[in-house]
Write a structure and sequence with these properties.
The chain is of the alpha+beta class. It has eleven helices and five strands; from the N terminus they run αβββββαααααααααα. β2 and β3 form a beta hairpin.
């Protein structure tokens, strides 16, 4: 259906000027608005939709034409005098030059918000907050320099996503909480939960016959890569990576709960510790499941609004792949959260008994070897 939509778009000269369908981008340059005039509201041809349009005069700041003044019509992001933005320079199939707004330049604002985020983390969490930021940075590096290039090169999404998930978990747990037995338990339990989540996601995707083409980005990516990518595998990889952070959260929390219960003055049997930790885990799970579902719902809110205007039956809307995909994401992620609690709690109860939380791994191994 999406392929037909793309074909239809290329066959609608009444709506879009034919020559502009063949635009060849020659450069993307930074520019600054020097004047805005002739602001008006126009109706999109063939529809009842109105659009704000303005005539923009701008100075090109970078690229081959730096210093030149250009004037063009803009109906995308409404600009004001002094605004910095990125400008597309294109040549149409007939040889005509064409300028358009690509994006507003918001880098300074993004850096400012990022700096505020780092400051809040450091003020609240101190040294551990710094460690969490380091692990976050490492996780992003793994995604940008390993996961994305590997997927683009056509490597199988499933093994590479599992490897990347394991690496991200390593950064997230060990660099934040230290190299100790608690971290080993949390890491091992989360890996088991990730594996279980991946298996459930694999079967859910296949029994629902999802293709991975639920978004326009997938269609464009497929066209740009010549159909060489495995989009079902990409969907599975996305579910695994998406649920990873929440699984890590519940795992670390359950390990901390078990450790605290063991460190109480009263001697508590392992089974009693497990039951108490599970009660806390259930409360945590109920909140996290709600958080996960709301996060997916928030991301798909424009889509929900679009379908709310449809005259189709609710059952038919839910059955569409774009909706079914989000449902599978939320449900499988939630199942993974629920399964993480008993897995990690059991491992923590077994391996943290009679253990000081501040000991390091090599001490643990030596003690275990001595007992054997």
């Amino acid at each position: 259906m999406r392929i037909l939509l793309l074909i239809a778009l290329f066959c609608m000269p009444a709506v879009v000027q034919g020559q502009e369908l063949y635009q060849d981008i020659q450069g993307v340059w930074r520019a600054k608005v020097t004047d805005v005039r002739n602001e008006r509201t126009v109706t999109v041809p063939g529809t009842n939709v109105t659009s704000e349009t303005q005539t923009v005069q701008a100075e090109i700041l970078t690229g081959a034409r730096a210093g030149e003044i250009v004037v063009f019509e803009n109906d995308y992001i409404q600009l004001e005098e002094g605004d910095a933005f990125y400008l597309n320079y294109m040549i149409t199939i007939n040889g005509g030059e064409f300028y358009s707004v690509r994006e507003i330049d918001r880098r300074a604002e993004l850096v400012g918000i990022l700096a505020f985020f780092v400051l809040v983390i450091l003020l609240f969490a101190g040294k551990q907050g710094l460690q969490s930021l380091v692990s976050l940075f490492g996780s992003l590096l793994v995604i940008v320099y390993i996961l994305v290039p590997g997927l683009v090169k056509g490597y199988s999404p499933i093994p590479i996503s599992v490897a990347v998930a394991s690496t991200i978990l390593f950064f997230a747990i060990f660099f934040t909480h230290g190299f100790n037995r608690r971290s080993v338990v949390a890491f091992s339990g989360t890996l088991l939960a990730v594996a279980l989540t991946g298996i459930l996601a694999y079967f859910s995707i296949h029994i629902t016959d999802l293709t991975g083409f639920a978004s326009d980005e997938s269609v464009y990516l497929n066209l740009n890569t010549g159909g060489t990518l495995d989009f079902v595998g990409l969907l599975l990889a996305g579910i695994i990576i998406g649920a990873l952070g929440v699984l890590d959260d519940i795992a670390v929390t359950q390990v901390a709960v078990v450790r605290e219960l063991y460190e109480t003055p009263a001697r508590i049997a392992r089974w009693e510790v497990y039951k108490k930790a599970m009660r806390i885990g259930r409360e945590h799970v109920s909140a996290l499941v709600n958080t996960l579902v709301l996060a997916y719902t928030g991301a798909a809110l424009p889509l929900l609004l679009l379908f709310s205007l449809s005259n189709d039956a609710a059952a038919n809307i839910i059955n569409t792949e774009v909706f079914a995909t989000e449902i599978i994401r939320a449900l499988i992620g939630s199942i993974g959260i629920v399964c993480t609690v008993p897995i990690v709690t059991l491992l923590a109860v077994i391996f943290l008994k009679n253990h000081s939380g501040d000991d390091h791994i090599h001490k643990d191994i030596a003690l275990h070897t001595h007992r054997l």
